[in-house]
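I am writing to request your help with a piece of structural work I have in hand. A protein sequence and the structure tokens that stand for its backbone fold form the material at issue. Please examine both parts with care and let me know of anything in them that strikes you as inconsistent. The record follows directly beneath this note.
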Amino acid sequence: MRTIVDLPDEQLGALARLCAEQKISRAEAVRRAVDRLLKENSSRTQDAAFGLWKNRPIEGQSYVAKLRREWDRP
């Protein structure tokens, strides 16, 4: 997919230098930057959930079992 991105002159110049040094196209540099941004943010989401239940009075597995028992009809 194509997209239009507006960059300030300073970023555009720095990007041009980086692309020349690495011998890559501007599009490739942008793809790599987007990929890195997505990876960094997905790991933060996973890290935020780690240990979420550590201060709860009930173990997660027991809590799920309790919720499932509520679904049973008499």
In short: The mean pLDDT is 89. The helical segments are 9-22, 26-49, 60-71. The chain is about 70% helix and 0% strand.
